[in-house]
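Regression test case RT-17, inverse folding.

Input:
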């Protein structure tokens, strides 16, 4: 019986499972979304939430705890500088699991694990980029002397 035995085993040894989850959490923090199977997404979700909770505290100890778990220093920097401040007013529920459908090769159920609000951040960045391109095109289209003759 598995009474009171929480977590997912994912049919892996302990070290393999830990490495897989650390890589998934690092990828979610770096890219703000990752495509994986539903079970792996559900297993990684509480770990991502824990990292964001550490980032909200923003102490030296919490930075060291996050650095011990995450794989790259860039992901630690992004977690504390951008993601922690973004979720400072939110109490939990930082991630979302969206089911995608079956994978073409083996039929495994795919899901997207993403940070809540990441679509808004990406959309705003794309909008700013388009605006800059539009302003640049307008500047290049106008002659140096001011308005064109009508």
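Golden output:
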């Amino acid at each position: 019986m598995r009474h009171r035995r929480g977590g997912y085993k994912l049919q892996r040894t302990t070290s393999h499972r830990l490495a897989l989850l650390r890589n998934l959490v690092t990828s979610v923090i770096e890219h703000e979304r990752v495509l994986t199977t539903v079970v792996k997404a559900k297993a990684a979700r509480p770990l991502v939430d824990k990292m964001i909770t550490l980032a909200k505290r923003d102490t030296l100890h919490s930075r060291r705890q996050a650095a011990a778990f995450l794989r790259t220093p860039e992901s630690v920097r992004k977690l504390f500088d951008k993601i922690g401040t973004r979720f400072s007013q939110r109490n939990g529920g930082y991630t979302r699991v969206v089911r995608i459908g079956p994978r073409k090769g083996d039929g495994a159920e795919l899901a997207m694990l993403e940070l809540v609000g990441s679509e808004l951040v990406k959309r705003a960045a794309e909008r700013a980029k388009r605006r800059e391109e539009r302003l640049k095109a307008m500047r290049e289209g106008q002659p140096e002397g001011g308005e064109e003759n009508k």
